[in-house]
Every structure is written in C-alpha cells, then in structure tokens.
Amino acid sequence: MNSTRQPAAEVVVALTGGVKEDAREVFGALRSAYGCDRAAEDVPNEVPGAGDRPTVWIATFDASDVRARPPRPARLTAPVVATLQGGYAAVDSLRGSLASAFAVREVGTAYGDQEEEVQLRLESRV
After folding, report:
1. What is the per-residue pLDDT for 2?
2. Helix then strand then coil, % of the chain, to nearest 5
3. DSSP states along 48-70
4. How far is CA 81 from the centre of its chain?
5. Minimal CB count within 10 Å: which of 54, 56, 81, 94?
6. What is the rounded distance in angstroms from the CA atom of residue 39 to the CA atom of residue 50?
C-alpha cells in the first residue's frame, strides 16, 4: 500500500475455515481490486506442526487504492468465512468486490461508532 493511505479506508480481512489455496483465491481476488499490505508473492501457507488447529489468514486492504480491474469469479474448495473490519464505506466496497468473485452471504455484523465488522460466508460462484 502507499504511504498516503487513510485509516478509514483500511479494511482488515481475516479468513478462516478453508485451506491455503482458498485463502490465496480470496486474497488474490481482493488484491486485483485494491492495494494490500502484503506483496503479491506473500501468499498464505500452512503452519508446520499446526495439525488440526484452525488457521486464520490476515491481510489489510486499502479501499482508497482501487485497481483498474474487478475480481473475476473464483473457485473455492470449501466455504470460507471472511471477517472484514474497517470504515463503513471501505467495508462495503470490499464486500461488493467479493460478491463479484464469490457467492457471499452475510453471517453477522457488529457496528461501531466509526467502523463495522462484518462476517461473510464465501462460496464458489463458478
């Protein structure tokens, strides 16, 4: 992300319930639409020795750093839960981009004074 980012435009995205390939698909879709705090080659990996413990993948996206192309439909091996936390407009923007790549169902929402947290269930649309 660039150094002129605005905190209200940042959205923290946490993914659970999928395998690393699914996390790569979701983050790849978002990275095609927004600036990200992680380099393109910094992809989700399994943690050695984690066993059956749940894994959470996290990245921060900048909704003010919009890329030219919207995400394309992508395939997931299983449903993934995405938790988005940030300013209202920024979260809405990322939610819309996710809906262009995946089937999105809202699972829960928590509202704050200046930001919200939304939990979404993502599934393949293709």
Report:
1. 47
2. 25, 40, 40
3. TT-TTS---EEEEEEEEEE-SSP
4. 9
5. 54
6. 24
pTM beyond 0.85: yes
**The length of the chain, given as a count of residues:** 126
pLDDT (average), residues 74-95 = 95
The conformation of residue 8, written as its DSSP 8-state character, comes to G
Contact 110, 103 (CB under 8 A): no
The Cβ of residue 39 has, within 10 Å, a number of other Cβ atoms equal to 8
10-16, strands of its sheet edge to edge: 34-36, 57-66, 10-16, 80-87, 115-124, 102-111
* Spatial separation of the C-alpha atoms in residues 3 and 35, rounded to whole Å: 11
Whether residue 8 has pLDDT greater than 70: yes
38 and 29 Cβ atoms separated by less than 8 Å:
no
